[in-house]
UniProtKB/TrEMBL annotation:
PANTHER family: DUF241 DOMAIN PROTEIN (PTHR33070:SF129), OS06G0725500 PROTEIN (PTHR33070)
One GO term of the biological process aspect: root development
InterPro entries per the UniProt record, alphabetical: BPS1_pln
Signal peptide stretch: none
Organism: Parasponia andersonii
Location of region: Disordered: 1-21
The protein's name: Uncharacterized protein
């Protein structure tokens, strides 16, 4: 019995070696905003435009992530998380649609009808 070894399983924590590209881009944007000391109106509007672009990219990436999660659940043929993921997906589509509508209003200055965009009932997906 003295010769027997106690075998225990060791779990390894495998963390990614580098940050997600979106986090790197966010940190870079924050670094640029903090480093620049200019407060002219054109500079501020340029920075605001960059921030709007960043928010739009984030919303689109979130929508794509939700779509991938739904596809994964469908492939696994589990119904447990499907309803929740579909709700998250439709909510993210609404957020993206709202952001696009507001951006177009700001660009054109005209009223843009939300019905000109595909609705949640359409068969097309944004992802």
């Amino acid at each position: 019995m003295a010769a027997s070894k106690s075998q225990s399983q060791v779990r390894s924590n495998s963390f990614p070696s580098e940050q997600h590209p979106l986090i790197q881009e966010c940190n870079e944007q924050l670094r640029r905003l903090g480093a620049s000391g200019a407060t002219s109106s054109s500079s501020l509007s340029h920075k605001l435009g960059g921030l709007k672009d960043f928010v739009a990219k984030d919303a689109v990436l979130h929508t794509k992530e939700c779509a991938r999660e739904i596809q994964s659940i469908i492939r696994r043929r589990t119904e447990v998380g499907l309803a929740c993921e579909i709700k998250k997906y439709t909510f993210s589509r609404k957020v993206v649609k709202r952001a696009i509508t507001n951006a177009l209003k700001n660009l054109k200055g005209d009223e843009i009808k939300p019905s000109s965009f595909p609705s949640a009932n359409d068969n097309e997906t944004m992802a």
